[in-house]
What does this fold into?
Amino acid sequence: MRKPLIDSKITMNRRKSLVKYAEKDSAFILFSGSECTRNNDANFPFRVHSDFYYLTGYEESESVVLIRPGKSPESVAFVRKKDPLHETWEGFLFGPEGAKEHFGFDEAYTNDVLFEKLCEFLVDIESVYYRIGLNEKRDAEVFKILNKVLFSRGRKGSPLSRVLDPEEVLGQMRRRKDKTEIELMRKSAQIAASAHIEAMRSIKPGMNEREIQGIFYQKSLSQNARDVSYDSICAGGDNATTLHYNSNDQELKDGDLFLIDAGAEYNYYASDITRTYPINGKFSEAQKEVYQAVLTVQKNMISKVKPGVSFEELNEKANEELTQAMVDIGLLKGNVSDLIKEKKFKKYYPHSLGHYLGLDVHDTGPYILNKESRPFDEGVVLTIEPGIYVPLSDDEAPKKFLGIGIRIEDDVLVTSEGCEVLSSDAPKEVNDIESIMN
It folds into this structure.
């Protein structure tokens, strides 16, 4: 039997805590996610939706959970029935009884009675939290159920007040990680850092970008990662100046830099680390000049992470320091304040400083609250990832910088007094990188 990855007491407590955030007389309808895709009898990997997993720990496709905060029954699961033939071909199923026993649902049914039972359990509900737009077929099914509920109330019955996006509630809850989540994220970062080191040690001129991608993937899975946490960016030379480059199929050339943006997913929790280093193991003076500028800014921004600070503050400070660095190395000319006001720095640094991290790489959670940038709380995990990118096609930059793309990214946990760099095992100092590579 497949064992749950997370203690059911944790997910049960999360479901019970919904009553603190949700509207009165409301319910959540959550689907496990898209069913396994099939093509000529071949299965492609299924990953349960993050919100569904956060509240249930349940991993099977074609599953639905109804949660009615403060009501009885509070949690009702609809899952696939036990089927010996299916289990022979595709693996173990918990079935309704297993779902109740191992995941703590108050009630559980086979998913073929979903329509009938949801209509029954939604009769006294005024607001429904359901994310529209993920799957048109499911949207139609849910709206059909809600129409049936309205019809059953008759003319004198009160209508549903509205359909709400569950991110309003779950984004608040998932933004701050509990102790269990922090340990999983620390492990995810350690796995990814180890894979980054293996990539550093392995890279040589003449290899293909995809070879390094494969090395990272193999090293991650060999440490019990479920998967990589996103499609890795493995970019040699000028390819690194394309922010979301993902072809990963070019030859690595002597004298170029290599940018690898890659993370591991461990028990559904993501890491997201970027390192940039010379393919031949030795930074040129021009490469080192730009690299050190980015690294200094990155370390300065990490040092400022603590409760009460916001992404907006960090972004503004990073823009200032990166612009000053670009002037110092001769990439930009002019007054720093004017360059920032005119957004001239965006030519070489077009993205923001980072994002939340968790069950999703770009994790849920509000950046703005009451029209103001929301300050960090203890337990928030974020990335810090400044960069400078100078494409070969640029006709204004000094020639020595052309084709240099550098990003340095770490995963950072906000603690009570400051922060912890979860990805600190991945080397980023010039001397440490060159020592490992040589």
The mean pLDDT is 95.
